[in-house]
Amino acid sequence: MTSATASSGPAVSFEFFPPKSEKMEQSLWQAIQRLAPLAPAFVSVTYGAGGSTRERTHNTVTRIQKETGIPAAAHFTCVGATREEIDAIARTYWDAGIRHLVALRGDPPEAAGGLGGKYEPYPGGYAYAADLVAGMKQVADFEISVAAYPETHPEAPSAQFDLDNLKRKVDAGATRAITQFFFDNEKYFRFRDRCAAAGIHVPIVPGILPITNYARAVEFAGKCNATIPPKMAETFEGLDDDPETRQLVAATVAAEQCQDLQAQGVEHFHFYTLNRADLTVAICRMLGIKARSTVGTAVPAAG
Question: What is the DSSP letter of 115?
């Protein structure tokens, strides 16, 4: 599959998760087929709690880059492995032509409660994301993205502590910060200003979550400290059993959010696709991003 050059508009990137079954793999590649002609700056593939999807993440990342030519980034965490083991995995990525990592502290293994469990540094491992960033830069000259939290990480004792942590990650060598999703743009604008005041001068790329399921989005938001604006709650009220209208509303809400961000100088959007393309394609279209050609695209066979 070859990606076409997209029309003018902001830069975009897309996040996927590694498929658990053959059916999910086919769905993933169908989404990639639809999104590739938008010429994303990169795509990233997530890593399960406790490193539970390490092999599937590796296979998906390397296959995307090999078969589509899109720069692919692997999520990398501190959990479940020693420094030596993590360094060795990073070298396999570099040897496979992967030049971009998304370095994260990571969540505890699901047996320890996943997002709700208490994080403990792995014995002999990298303790926190800043340590991981520094270690990966020693392995090879990776481009490294890190996470940022406009409304503060749920486990951070204060907003200032969280900001200081982001500064440590950038000082260790991170070249970009991608935010947790948010729905209130004012939270992002204030956070961006605080980053600049703190001497954090890498791009702060907003993470955008198109809402495929409002109840699930509310659940996600509760876990990661993201505010649901009252107007947004009213907009989606009563649409649980009306998927067609919900889809139209979701695309419009996300597009308006992105247009407002763009008007305030945002030049790159990172979409949490949940391995689905429809909403993201529609939002990109409303941002002026569309493929000029889809000639030559094809879905690789599942396998």
Answer: G
For the four alpha carbons of 251, 252, 254 and 255, in that order, the dihedral sign comes to positive
Q: Return the DSSP state at 183.
A: S
15 in catalytic set: yes
- 123, 171 in Cβ contact below 8 A? no
Element of type H or E holding 104: strand 100-104
Query: Which amino acid is present at 115?
Result: L
3-state secondary structure of 204: strand
- Which residue among the candidates 15, 85, 186, 244 is catalytic per the annotation? 15
Please report which residue ranges of the chain form alpha helices under DSSP H: 22-35, 54-68, 83-95, 129-139, 159-171, 185-197, 214-224, 230-236, 243-263, 278-286
Q: Kindly report, residue by residue over 109-165, the tens digit of the pLDDT.
A: 664 444 556 888 899 999 999 999 999 999 999 999 999 999 999 999 999 999 999
Backbone angles phi, psi at 227, to 5 degrees: -75, 135
Conformation bin of residue 199: beta by default, left when phi > 0, alpha when psi is -120 to 50 = left
Contact (CB, 8 A) for 237 and 228: no
pTM as predicted: 0.91
Contact predicate 98/62, CB 8 Å: yes
Angle at CA of residue 90, ends 57 and 50, nearest 5°: 50
